[in-house]
Hints:
The protein is an alpha/beta fold. The chain is 34% helix and 20% strand.
Amino acid sequence: MLSGIILAGGDSLRMGGENKSLLILEKEALILRQIRIMRELCNEVIIVTNTPKLFLRLVDTSVRIITDYIPGKGPLSGMHAGLTLSRNQSAWVVGCDMPFLSPAAAELMLRKKKRGLDAIIPWLQGVMHPLHAIYDRDCAGHIWTLLKHQDTELSSLRKGLLWQEAVESEFQSDGIDCSFVTTIKTRDDYFLAQQHLEKTKVRSG
Length: 205
């Protein structure tokens, strides 16, 4: 069993304040696309947001909508809330600006985590990607400690956790496209994501 946690907080300054989770990709709001994809692997999906009313009418009632325990502390605060309230021992944690989620990549990482680790985090081309990673629910306590010390950097997750990276070769050997770590930060990113989906559609068609 796996929980899916979508972190849907934060400002979208480089998008002119537009909520990235509501961007339309292939006639579907990005967050609805994410929920649909996560359900291929997860029996529970949680949205962590500081604007819950925005999603109440958009998503069905099976999706849990929760808020941060400590607002204004960034994605770590959202992760803490999501992990604390998740019903499963393992969770797939993503940002609401990630258009190409991969259940196959998440499943590969979940298999690795079952070896007794706290987290499996993608490490692609020498870069750590703390989102689109698999975490144990018990990581919430570690995150709480970081927040109490005013440490809100995602990269700080490595401190004190028993974690392991998942590298390109592992994904590629399973035929998994590593574009799953792509994020939409700007209008240009949004345009490129639309282009990527169009090219994918042409190849598969």
